[in-house]
Amino acid sequence: MLTQGAVMKDDGLFQLQHHHSGRSIWRRQSFTDVYFSADVIKVNGPNDVAFGIIADTKYKNFYNLQINGNGYFVMGKHSQGKWHNKIGWKKSNLIKRGNNKNNPNRLRIVCKGNLIMGFINNEMVGSFIDQSFSSGKVAVESGGGKGNAVAVYFDNIIIKEKGKKD
């Protein structure tokens, strides 16, 4: 399911968000013990707007790994209408800043039992234990700024489930 402002382009997914965040969700299947990764490219827009990947989506309940163009990331969950940051906004030299058209950031979130792990450019940036969600969908997300649009391109998406073949 593509969010408003999302189109398939050059074998990837391009999302242009204005005043709100948008999620494009892989609705064909629910996953447990999922490995989900994507190349994320901020093409245009403000650097303080978050974008990234989410796992175990149950409407508005999910685990997330998000970055912004200023080189910060956040990791945690959203449930019952509230954000629960397990790792609050933290600066990382692993993140390629600004508009990085030719130099994507590789984001990966792994949900294995109650262990949730986040990786940026193949380096673990955090993990936490949580039992809120045992299965669900995966999605990519891009945010909207105050009157400014952010354009994000998602490519080379990999979704694997423990015990399943590619």
Question: What does this protein structure show overall?
Answer:
The structure is a single chain. It is built from no helices and 13 strands. With 166 residues, the chain is mainly beta. The protein has a single domain, classed as Exo-inulinase, domain 1 (Jelly Rolls), CATH 2.60.120.560. A 7-stranded antiparallel beta sheet has the order 1-2-13-4-9-10-11, with no helix packed on it. Strands 3-12-5-6-7-8 form a 6-stranded antiparallel beta sheet, with no helix packed on it.
Q: Which range best describes the helical content: under 10%, 10-25%, 25-40%, 40-55%, 55-70% or over 70%? A: under 10%
CATH architecture call: Sandwich
Q: Treating each run of at least 4 consecutive H or I residues as one helix, how many helices?
A: 0
The first-to-last residue Cα distance is 22 Å
